[in-house]
Write a structure and sequence with these properties.
Largest sheet: none
Shape: globular
Order of helices and strands: HHHHHHHHHHH
Number of domains: 3
Strand content: under 5%
Distance between the termini: 41 Å
Radius of gyration: 20 Å
């Protein structure tokens, strides 16, 4: 894709998303519904004007990571912990039901193999945290008790989904499942979510210290964005979704800078 064509596509995306979001709000629906509808209209489903090329996918990944960082900044960790058991119940329901229904539909109705049906069920367990957060924000429930339960459940659900898909992938390659390898994936992801905020706290102290001694402005935003991107890479390295890295960084830095 030529650079000028990409700029034009980006212009169309931004304007159409804004217009449809405005229409959705006027119809008493969350703005994110309008933005999703704009993608359906412009994409292969209807008009076929735009295709999700590599550049657009990269922009989308960066956007969702920064969105989850913002969510982490606005999240009260103590309230999130207090909703732990309720979030766990919601997460398990959101994990087991789509998994079971996806497998039944694929295996019984479409006559697919058991492994393929399991993969279908596994992919259906994934939660779009970005969409969930936008809807909660649009209806002003992000900081409420229900919003904290849903957010915690979405994070847990993503962790369970990653472990499940890792098991299915290993089974598809070797015909068996290693509990040891599955445990490693779970431990790495859980360890990242626990240790990353602690490490980010140390980084934040260093940022504030060097910001005082810096001779040029802009050190804080530059280092914060760099930290978010680093945690996104680190999350991917341990087998977790990149967006959880942004969320963990936001949780750690929320009380330090806000």
């Amino acid at each position: 894709m030529e650079t000028s064509t990409f700029f034009l596509n980006l212009l169309i995306i931004l304007l159409s998303a804004r217009i449809f979001a405005e229409l959705a709000v006027r119809l008493k629906a969350p703005s994110v519904i309008g933005e999703l509808f704009a993608g359906i209209v412009l994409g292969p489903s209807l008009l076929g004007w735009l295709e999700p090329g590599q550049a657009i996918k990269l922009f989308a990944e960066v956007g969702i990571i920064l969105l989850l960082f913002e969510v982490g900044l606005k999240t009260d960790m103590r309230r999130l912990v207090h909703t732990g058991h309720k979030s766990a119940i919601v997460a398990l329901a959101g994990f087991i039901l789509p998994m079971g229904l996806g497998f039944i539909v694929g295996y019984s109705i479409f006559d697919l193999s058991a492994l393929v049906s399991l993969f279908i069920g596994g992919t259906l367990t994934a939660t779009s945290i970005g969409i969930t957060v936008r809807v909660l924000s649009d209806i002003n429930q992000q900081g409420g008790r229900v919003g904290q339960i849903v957010l915690g459940a979405a994070v847990l659900d993503d962790v369970l989904g990653v472990v499940l898909l890792a098991l299915l992938y290993e089974f598809s390659l070797g015909g068996g499942v290693s509990i040891t390898n599955a445990s490693k994936v779970f431990i790495f992801v859980a360890g990242f979510l626990v240790l990353a905020p602690m490490a980010a706290k140390l980084f934040s102290i260093m940022i504030k210290h060097f910001e005082v001694d810096s001779e040029i402005p802009g050190l804080v935003p530059t280092t914060i964005v760099s930290l978010v991107l680093f945690f996104a890479w680190l999350a991917h390295s341990v087998g977790a979704p990149e967006l959880l890295g942004g969320f963990a960084a936001g949780l750690a830095l929320s009380r330090r800078f806000f």
